[in-house]
Design a protein that fits this description.
alpha+beta; Butyryl-Coa Dehydrogenase, subunit A, domain 1; Butyryl-CoA Dehydrogenase, subunit A, domain 2; seven-stranded mixed β-sheet; two-stranded antiparallel sheet; 18 helices; 13 strands; globular
């Protein structure tokens, strides 16, 4: 028996529940000038089309792409069979333009629907999705910071998907610490710059999907101050437009990495040798210009964790329904044979329920984050836009770190359902385990995300930085306590909000005498916030569920009984962080 033939099935019913009931996005869209004509029916049509594309076009080339991988010959990358055709179909259907401004050829749809699309394409084929990973972020960065001539020349090609983009940050000596960057930019008399340097781990740095690639490169000007305050951002194309055609720029791919997973994605080492480029935004303000791109990228990486969890759940559930092993105790009604489907065995049911409640809970939180980004731009009231921006700043590191960690762990749990077959490529789950691991590392490691949350956002200013998120949790708890079906969940959520607030206050106080304390506590603190956010997710799900979604009540009960206990573990670890970690003796 093989799970290789199990197709991806877009979770359309749950997506509709999240968008229409959990978020109630159509009500907010009516208050936005740019989305007032969008309704639930239109959103469902987008979801159905995206799900069909992922199932019919992307999923069938996922396993073969993993086995084939990419090749590099004479500086040119060849992607796996079917990748180019899938990309042409993607562009032809207009997916690259989904959430872009109509003024530059976009469809102007909400980022919430773009988040939904990203979940689906990662579920279908993570490696293929990597080529598009930075496209919307690059569009947003140029749209916000590039001069008008640059926007007119480059944005339409990115929005249409005719050209793809990369983000060139990392260098051999500079990973998380961008202050160590050495790439140089020399101003030219015509207003352009010449870029010299090496960049590594560049997803899609070279590929055969598009005729041109727009590299967004961090480099230093000659008068740059040291550290991160001396970094500027430049647009450096692979090919330079010239007299109606193109001429090669001095941009070279020196190699592609042999990796643990996402083998169909070309992860490139790039070399810039006096390559022509142009400054984006202000000199020495490259990180500020790139910040928009990073926020978009980090939300999409978090949604990769959701996509992995969803596909792992589908594979494990199907296998557990078919695989016969031993007799279950107690036996299922009507069972007569010597063995029962393993879905009837309690250990398997527990794994499957963990997969279900985490996946559906994360979907609500991840889509909510996409909707919050829409509100930061388009809410009619300025005060609401500012409040949503503060909320988005807190949600971004939680979703990036917590979702990717859970995506990997859930894929690993799903593999256990298959037993020995799970270790075999034919059953597809081992590829998900391998592919999902990278998401915890790139776009800012999960440790960096945790430090960003606790040090830069929560503790800065005295320790009340978590207030926008806690206020949202408490507001939901208060609503739930007025609803008979959700009252107990609201009470429990309130209790955990109190404990989180107390733990945060203790950290803020103790950190005054122990500068390293936030770094020791940050990862467990983010996990604590993540589990409580899931409690918030399921509390709201119970409150808004009608009889057609009665299974949501069963899932919420399971989460609060079996999973929320994890919060106690993470709280204890946060409290234990007051003890100094000893230096390891390497002598």
């Amino acid at each position: 028996m093989s799970s290789g033939g199990i197709p991806y099935r877009a979770p359309l019913a749950d997506i509709a529940f999240v968008i229409e009931r959990w978020i109630d996005a159509p009500a907010d869209w009516k208050c936005m000038d740019c989305h007032e004509s969008l309704d639930a029916e239109a959103a469902r049509m987008v979801a159905e089309a995206a799900g069909q594309f992922s199932a019919d076009t992307l999923a069938p080339i996922n396993g073969t792409g993993d086995l084939q991988g990419c090749t590099l010959a004479e500086g040119r990358v060849t992607t796996p069979d079917g990748f180019r055709e899938a990309y042409r179909a993607y562009c032809g259907a207009g997916w690259t333009a989904l959430a872009c401004d109509p003024a530059v050829g976009g469809q102007g749809l909400p980022q919430l629907l773009d988040a939904m699309l990203n979940e689906m394409i990662v579920s279908g084929n993570h490696a293929w999705a990597m080529y598009l990973g930075i496209l919307h972020g690059a569009y947003a960065c140029l749209n916000a910071h590039a001069p008008e001539w640059m926007r007119a020349a480059w944005l339409p090609h990115l929005v249409s998907g005719r050209w793809l983009a990369t983000m060139c940050l990392t260098e051999p000596q500079a990973g998380s610490d961008l202050g160590l960057l050495r790439a140089q930019a020399r101003p030219q008399a015509d207003g352009s710059h010449r870029i010299d340097g090496q960049k590594i781990f560049i997803s899609g740095g070279e590929q055969d999907l598009t005729e041109n690639i727009v590299h967004l490169v961090l480099a230093r000007l000659p008068d740059a101050p040291p550290g991160t305050k001396g970094i500027s951002l430049f647009l450096v194309p692979k090919l330079l437009p010239q007299d109606g055609g193109f001429e090669p720029n001095a941009v070279f791919c020196d190699g592609i990495e042999k990796k643990m997973g996402i083998k169909g994605s070309a992860t490139c080492a790039m070399r810039f040798e006096s390559a022509k480029g142009w400054l984006i935004g202000e000199p020495h303000r490259g990180l500020a210009a790139m910040f928009i791109m990073m926020n978009s990228a980090r939300l999409h990486v978090g949604l990769q964790g959701l996509g992995h969890a969803e596909m792992a759940y589908q594979l494990a559930l199907t296998y557990a329904r078919e695989r016969q092993q031993m007799r279950a105790q107690p036996r299922p009604q009507g069972a007569t044979g010597a063995a029962d489907a393993i879905i009837h065995h309690a250990p398997m049911r527990r794994i499957l329920m963990d997969l279900r409640v985490w996946t559906e809970g994360m979907r609500a939180l991840g889509y909510w984050a996409g909707h919050v980004l829409d509100l930061t731009e388009h809410a009619p009231d300025a005060a609401e836009r500012a409040g949503q921006q503060a909320l988005a700043a807190l949600l971004t590191p939680v979703i990036k770190s917590f979702f990717t960690e859970r995506g990997f762990e859930l894929a690993s749990q799903a593999l256990q359902v298959f037993g020995g077959y799970g270790y075999v490529h034919e059953y597809r789950i081992e590829q998900i385990v391998r592919d999902s691991r990278i998401a915890m590392i790139y776009e800012g490691t999960n440790q960096i995300q945790a430090l960003d949350l606790l040090q830069r956002k929560v503790l800065a200013g005295g320790g009340d930085g978590l207030a926008p998120l806690l206020d949202a949790f408490r507001h939901e708890a208060n609503l739930a306590m007025r609803c008979p079906n959700a009252r107990a969940y609201g009470q429990t959520l309130t209790q955990w909000c109190d404990r989180l607030m107390e733990a945060t206050a203790a950290l803020a106080k103790d950190a005054q005498a122990d500068a390293e304390l936030p770094a020791r506590a940050a990862e467990d603190y983010l996990r604590l916030v993540g589990v409580i956010a899931m409690a918030f997710s399921w509390c709201r799900a119970v409150r808004v569920a009608d009889e057609a979604h009665a299974h949501k009540r069963q899932s919420a009960c399971y989460f609060y009984d079996h999973v929320l206990v994890d919060a106690g573990h993470w709280l204890a670890r946060v409290q234990a962080a007051r003890h100094v970690i000893p230096m390891i003796d390497v002598g």
